[in-house]
Write a structure and sequence with these properties.
The protein has 102 residues and is mainly β. It has one helix and seven strands, in the order βββββββα. Strands 4-3-2-1-7-6 form a six-stranded antiparallel beta sheet, covered by helices on one side. Residues 10-99 form the DUF6881 domain. This is DUF6881 domain-containing protein.
């Protein structure tokens, strides 16, 4: 994996393609701190819903209590495909800025 971000924060997009996609998010954007824990998370749904969480605010989701490991988010079987890629701080912040439109 090519490291896109300099400094302690890292940013990821997780694409989650489900056989039955309506009830689950299809995309996550996650900011990870230097301690490998989630700092901010955004969940996007096919119907336009966007849920998000920080350590101070939760809208229909929450930050994980487990350290983030990108390799845990790369898999494929007959029902789903999960792919995790590191993204730029700019891409993450653009998605984060648009969350309040929903």
């Amino acid at each position: 994996m090519v490291k896109l971000n300099v400094g302690s924060m890292r940013y990821y997009r997780i694409d989650w393609i489900h056989k039955w996609n309506d009830e689950y998010p299809y995309c996550y954007y996650i900011q990870i701190g230097s301690d490998n824990y989630e700092v901010r998370k955004l969940e996007k749904y096919q119907d336009g819903r966007i849920y998000y969480a920080t350590n101070k605010e939760e809208k229909e989701t929450f930050l994980s209590s487990e350290p983030f490991r990108p390799k845990d988010y790369n898999s494929e079987d007959e029902n789903e495909i999960i792919k995790c890629v590191e993204v730029s701080k700019e891409e993450f912040n653009e998605e984060w800025a648009n969350k309040s439109n929903f």
